[in-house]
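User:
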Amino acid sequence: MEVTPPSAALFDAATSTLVVVGPDPVNRSASMLNMLPTSDDQLRRVSMPDRVTAITGDDRGVVYASTRGGYIRVDVRAGRAEKVYVDRHDGTEFTAIARRADGKLVLGSADGAVYTLGSDTAVAAEVKIFSRVDALVTQGNTAVALDRGQTSVAAVDASGSRAQHALRAGEGATTLAADPLGPVLVADTRGNELLVFGTDPLMMRQRYPVRNAPYGVVATRTLAWVSLTATNIVVGYDLETGIPVEKVRYPTVRQPDVLAFDETTDTLFVVSASGDGVQVIKNAGRPV
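Assistant: Predicted structure:
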């Protein structure tokens, strides 16, 4: 699968589709969603009405993409995109998005605020926590935000109006992912570490050296996957013992910045940021 240089990817379980977002090759001020159903390998592309900064999904066939002024709702089956404007935030640069267990969307902004929506368009709560929100994930109804410039993480409670104090996340945190079993994983690229945070309350639980510029991270029920961009390797770690234990590693495409995973088929998707496309590793956690 060849896609434009990606900024994010996810796997939608309901449609068995890998969704990768990157720049639109025709309209450089906008983005494009590349959708690859694993059942037939027929690549579909959907042009976005604006530039997308992040994506999240509901695992039921809908992808949500943050953008200036609101978010874009994408029906994966129909290949249809619709922009939804957030009330009184036409000029807000939304930089991150996540979906809570109760279905509410959470948006992060370029000026460091986290907004919890009470409906499709209305903000129910907001809290200013950083100078910028670069990424968001959720565990239940708790949101965890990352500020790369301050290399810090902070958690926002279910009310959406209270944030726990920010915690240092290594020397240069770049990405984060929610583990299905509860923790939040952070790749500290500059410090060459994998950080594991608990969210209730927010606290660092594990800190493990991972050499060669860890960047891409995705968590599954069995392994935490981290890509090493200096050597083009992806490694699967078992976190159950309290210290990450390497279980498997694979060579990858160049610049493996973005990872996604299909739990049903144990398939890891490694997306190249240098134009080498998508590497599909089947039975990733159980190599033969």
